[in-house]
Specification:
The protein is mostly helical and about 110 residues long. The protein has one domain. It has a two-stranded antiparallel sheet with strand order 1-2. The longest helix is centred in the middle third of the chain and has 33 residues. The protein is globular. It starts with a helix and ends with a helix. It is an enzyme of class 2 (transferase). This is histidine kinase.
Length: about 110
Amino acid sequence: MRTPINAINGYVRIAGAFPDDQVKQQECRNKILTASGYLLEMIKSVLDMSKLESGEMTLEHKPFQMTALLDRVCRVIKVQAMEEGIDYNVDNEVLTHSCLIGSPAHIQ
């Protein structure tokens, strides 16, 4: 949960450093929305753990794009990596099948 919170904090700081750059401001807002959505999904997953452990919950079986899921996750992690001076890259080209059936929220 720290990763999306750190991403949100990072993008707020970046936006603060460029108060007159509307393009940078919009980019930061978009990334903050992505990170907060990811955090919300994580919180939902934690809350669903008790249901899963008790057998009350079934996992989803729906089609999703693995490349889109990876892109969303990577946007959040990349900020934290940059702040630590870490070069972070994901190669989606190695995926043989990017359209999968499963529970994307749980994979995320």
